[in-house]
Amino acid sequence: MTAAATGFAGPRRGSLRGRLASPVLLLLPAGLFLGFIYLLPVIDLVRLSVSGPSWSSFFERVFSVPLYWDSLVRTMQISLTVATLCLLLGYPTALLIRRSSGITRILVTAAVILPYFIAILIRTYAWMVLLGRNGPVNKLLTGLGLLSEPAQLLFSRGTVLLGMTAVLLPIMVLSIYSSVSRLDAALPRAAQASGAGPIATFWRIMLPLTLPGMGAGFLLVFVAALGFFITPTLLGGPGDQMFAMHIVQQADFINSEGFLQALAVVLLVITLLFVGVAGHFLGFEFIWGGGKAAGPAAKAAGAGAATPRRSLLSGLADRIGWPVLRLLGRLGPAWGRWTVLVLAGAVIATLIVPILVVMVISFSSASYLTFPPPGFSLRWYEKFFSDPNWMDAFRHSAVIAAASAVISVLLGASAAMGIVRSEIRGKSVIMLLLVSPVIVPPVVLGLSLYGLFLRFDLVGSVWGLASAHAIGGIPLVVIIVAAALQGVDRRLEQAAALHGASPLTVFRTVTLPAIAPGLAAAGFFAFLHSFDELVLSLFLSSAQLKTLPLMLWADINYQLNPVLAVVSSLEVLLVVIGLALAGPVLARTRAGA
Amino acid sequence: MVTELASLAEPSADARMSGAARTQGAIGAGITLRDVVKNYGDFRAADRISLDIRPGEFITLLGPSGSGKTTLLNLIAGFQKLDGGEMLVDGAPIDHVPTHKRGFGMVFQSYALFPTMTVAQNVAFPLRMAGIDRATAERRVAETLEIMRLSEHAAKTPAQMSGGQQQRVAIARAIVRRPRIVLMDEPLSALDRRLRESIQIEIRELHRAIGSTILFVTHDQGEALTMSDRIAVMDAGRIVQIGTPVDIYRHPRNRFVASFVGESNLIEAEIVQRRGATMALRNRAGYVFEADAGHGIEVGRATVLVRPERIAIADGPGPHAMPVTVTSALFLGEILRIEARADSGETLLIRCMDAAGRSLPAAGERLHVSWGAADCWVLA
């Protein structure tokens, strides 16, 4: 009877209390925060871009000046090349992770995951070290007699492509892997038992099934490359200017207001266009690593009209494709294995060798960058820890990152609760909005925030910067915590409630412990995101509030001294420790996402 | 029962099969395993297994999980490499032939249908891989879909079909090339009971029609008994016994086979006397009964198998009836399943047909049971 009584006394649907208890409200804080600091500035950006004599006058200028048009074309070319390279190199790597086992698998996975969490700035710096005049590559080539004297390997299109591919490869590998790992292991066996050799199995079975993962990876890499700023600036020559670099350069001129915003809007619109088209085919879930649930079945239902075209294609495939495949099939399985091993081996070397070289150099006794170091010492560590400028920057970064992580976790986790536990309509639209900051080029975000920060006098303030970094931190938290929440068995919560626990007690005793590892991981990644953030800080920080990435950035441009290697090594250490703690959780969310 | 009758009333696979297909139908190949060994680290999954599978035979590997039956199947399919011994198909070694060149058909537990292809494309896949021209392939696919009663589903994708239909597509894909050997890895375990029974019959008919050798793996002893020409019972990486279903059920070689296949009463008894073809035994309660003398056991103790359906309930006490106390009784429809305890403490399981005038005994009731010499099987 008491149960029935409390049931009646509880909040009813439609009453004020009932509405206040709805999980939809949990979306409110994040919604308000992002609305103010993310949507509003972007809208303002668009408003300024159309504020010329006529709405289109700034855009006409963008498209009529050859400098910008050429740069736009170049940006597309570079992004497309990088995405293609990532696809070609990422696929064998994902296959290798899937096929290997035991310690090999752990090492390969670590070689992919670790760079994924190390700042782009630091990974680019590692390439500068590797390819520099006194770097190991030049040393090796001269040592082998291939070069008579060290050559200038940096500052060319080739290094831009190499650097960007290396930086973006982990995204591709993880994206393809999530699709490869979901395959029924019996499928390739069924193909073999049906008489398909390794190549035919790959071509006819594996490739079509992993197409969504490849598409998602390709798009993520392509879109990220479109807005790239750090790597092309550091590794490119004068002929490799990408579009985002123009925006940053223009930002130094006060009189370019309006035109500057138009540049940013062009980049933003192009980015959103590609994401929109991709989302139409793949489902927008690709942005946060989810798959389109009813993909093949839904397509097959509407496939009736496409039959003639398909039979034409399959006719072509029959005449040309099949004989070729059968011919290739005679090569024997060893070829396929070696292809995968060689390609994946190269990828792993590209990902991990630069980091190792930088770590070794940080212990160098030389006063300039050279590899191998003439001797080992801790002098650069001493220099780093005794230099007040570096220590101040370190302190600022840590404080800002901690504040940003707190904001991100509080807002992101409650939003994740709201989205998973409410019955609100249009969940995927809300999720898309929450996660969308991930795809907005950081340069565009930085520029749009600059106006807001000026107006509210937030430039160079700790909380301002922390909030700005939280724009990117919240999506990370939402994705991880939502995945963790979906892993919580609803029946456990129902069982607790049935046995008399109030909603708050249920949350405290059942839900919270279940998602606590997810929360911890999310907090760490939000911290790391802010700790590594450079582009927004370039726009929003002041001379008094230098962060670690800002110090690095300034020093990379002027002096490539080994103190940067020390900072890089410490960052790697931070990531390794963080991953070691968060590893199990991460593995679960990635696999389940 | 209704579905079974319905499926029997339909034209059989034999009749549905066109004359051309039947003459093309490959005669099954014989498989010989000699001292086959497979290790996973320290664990020996296949322990010197020797087996002769006759051409065209329907043979079942039956055993609990971890007994090595799937390992054996994977070895024959070529998914795994032998650590010792040899495998021959029609006398030719196949150890170094890769899976896709062995030319077997295979049905998987998870169906393993290619999700991006339609039913027709799935079934056509092995033919395309064998390099058969499009027109012939289309004809063969249509024939095979007809046999499996899938013709109207040809354009669907696997995701649009039920589990039973998907399994029939998987079977169609496995037999479309008329392979000499078809491997089936627990193909029915994901289906519900009624569907399982009807597909069991379908596979049996199919086997008769196409003549391939079928190697079937299952842990379900009922399935093995219904379907097989011969059963190889496996335990701990070895074949414990191989024989016809009747043989395995009636004359199990040891306690493991006796208790894994069917329900059983294993009675510990002492051999009292031996007279020619029969012997007299006494159980712990002092009840003396006769059994056919097998295995040449002369004296000492023996384990005697009496199947529950071979135990008769006597009308009342008598010299050849053992008194027991009913502990539970279940009415299963056509059968009554009674558990009873002998005075010596042994539990007896009794199954008897439902009949007019027979009432379900209550727990605690005394019954008198008996069995004849031919109903006993003395285990080694």
UniProtKB/TrEMBL annotation, chain A:
Keywords: Cell membrane, Membrane, Transmembrane, Transmembrane helix, Transport. InterPro entries: MetI-like, MetI-like_sf. The keyword Manganese does not apply. It is a multi-pass membrane protein. Residues 72-278, 394-585 form the ABC transmembrane type-1 domain. Pfam families: BPD_transp_1. The chain crosses the membrane at residues 20-40, 76-97, 106-130, 160-180, 201-230, 259-282, 340-363, 398-420, 432-453, 465-485, 506-528, 563-587. Coiled coil: none annotated. It is found in: Cell membrane. Its main location: membrane. The keyword Cell membrane applies. Belongs to the binding-protein-dependent transport system permease family. CysTW subfamily. This is ABC transporter permease subunit.
TrEMBL record, chain B:
Part of the ABC transporter complex PotABCD involved in spermidine/putrescine import. Responsible for energy coupling to the transport system. The keyword Cell membrane applies. SMART domains: AAA. GO terms for molecular function: ATP binding. It catalyses: ATP + H2O + polyamine-[polyamine-binding protein]Side 1 = ADP + phosphate + polyamineSide 2 + [polyamine-binding protein]Side 1. This is Spermidine/putrescine import ATP-binding protein PotA. The complex is composed of two ATP-binding proteins (PotA), two transmembrane proteins (PotB and PotC) and a solute-binding protein (PotD).
